[in-house]
UniProtKB/TrEMBL annotation:
GO terms for cellular component: chloroplast; cytosol. The keyword Amino-acid biosynthesis applies. It comes from Ensete ventricosum. Keywords: Amino-acid biosynthesis, Isomerase, Lysine biosynthesis. This is diaminopimelate epimerase. Signal peptide: none annotated. PANTHER family: DIAMINOPIMELATE EPIMERASE, DIAMINOPIMELATE EPIMERASE, CHLOROPLASTIC. The keyword Isomerase applies. Its EC number is 5.1.1.7.
Length: 363
């Protein structure tokens, strides 16, 4: 594997972050010399930036140059800390890396490090593009809310677009339409929530018009109140246990309880789980355990599911701010069209590089 990565902090020649294994640099790296694949758009102060100065961008050094078919180019984005390796896959309908390779790329110790790898593929059925994503464990979710916002911003980079934009994206959850706003945030029409229990899917018996709303689920001997929602992918939302209705999410030991929800027998396709604290009728605080990725700083589909569940349980109004560890999302479940709308940031991380698709990636 060959790699070139732009880091956002300064380091000295003896800094342990620089290693010769497992990364084999594509060309000799020398401190004080520019490296062609580095670009740094950070607004941080010079003391927080890499000491190597990036050259001005030129067409023959563009990081998306495909002259070498054995090279996989990538760039990283994040949505509220939920980070992704973005791959331009517009010239093929099949992802350029396998799920097994994605696991290695997402490894934060021996790879690039990410919650998933997202591919921009050609559109189908009158859509502009297709989005596929491999989680850090190699599984493939139907959709990702933070990922779709990063996807939209990445498209503007690939196509050199400016200003307000709208895209029709084909996903495993169906048609999703993200819009780039004038302030740079991305507003996404996430479609309507799925509440019919078998379609989520969950085996928890429906208790209200075919839906699972504030039903009992026993996890590791504790009875929880849960509401199940699908936003194209399954979510189990809880505001507390049977004994303690009010949940304080900072007290949750997520790494202990999260996997037990994810792999519970009541969820045949596993589930994402959101633990939610009600701050007010328009303000929720949540932590999430994502199916296939574990504890993450944010989950867009999860925030959408949380507001739907909060409305169904009578906790909030239809328009809420959802506070996640990585920052806030604005969520609205509109009564007139039954669609959920998510608005939030998607930001480019100053990491650009490429991998030679042999050696380490194929081990």
């Amino acid at each position: 594997m060959a790699a070139s990565i732009s880091l956002t902090r300064s380091f000295r020649p003896r800094d342990p972050v620089v290693a010769t294994h497992p990364f084999r640099l594509a060309s000799p790296f020398r401190f004080g010399r520019s490296f062609p694949l580095f670009r740094n758009r950070s607004s941080r102060s010079p003391s927080a930036s890499m000491s190597v100065q990036a050259p001005k961008k030129s067409p023959d050094l563009e990081f998306l140059d495909r002259r070498d078919s054995g090279i996989l180019h990538f760039v990283k984005y994040h949505g509220l800390g939920n980070d992704f390796i973005m791959v331009d896959n517009r010239n093929s309908s099949e992802p350029k890396v396998t799920p097994e390779q994605a696991v290695k790329l997402c490894n934060r110790n021996i790879g690039v490090g990410a919650d998933g790898v997202i591919f921009v593929l050609p559109g189908v059925n009158d859509t502009d593009y297709t989005m596929r994503i491999f989680n850090s464990d190699g599984s493939e979710p139907e959709m990702c809310g933070n990922g779709i916002r990063c996807f939209a911003r990445f498209i503007t980079e690939l196509e050199n677009l400016h200003g307000m934009q709208s895209f029709r994206i084909h996903t495993g959850a169906g048609l999703i339409v993200p819009e780039i706003q004038s302030d740079g945030k991305v507003k996404v029409d996430m479609g309507h929530p799925i509440l019919h229990a078998p379609d989520i899917p969950t085996k928890i018996p429906a208790n209200k018009n075919g839906s699972v709303i504030k039903a009992e689920l026993v996890v590791d001997g504790i009875s929880w109140n849960v509401t199940c929602v699908s936003m194209g992918n399954p979510h189990c939302v809880t505001f507390g246990t049977k004994k303690c209705e009010a949940l304080h999410v900072d007290d949750i030991k997520l790494e202990d309880i999260g996997p037990k929800f994810e792999h519970h027998e009541m969820f045949p396709s596993r589930t994402n789980t959101e633990f939610v604290q009600v701050i007010s009728r328009s303000h929720l605080k949540m932590r999430v355990w994502e199916r296939g990725a574990g504890a993450t700083l944010a989950c867009g589909t999860g925030a959408c599911a949380v507001v739907v569940a909060a409305v169904l349980e009578g906790h909030t109004e239809r328009h809420c701010i959802v506070e996640l560890p990585g920052g806030p999302l604005e969520i609205e479940w509109r009564e007139e069209d039954n669609h959920v709308y998510m608005t939030g940031p998607a930001e480019e991380i100053v990491v650009y590089g490429w991998f030679r698709k042999d050696g380490w990636m194929d081990e």
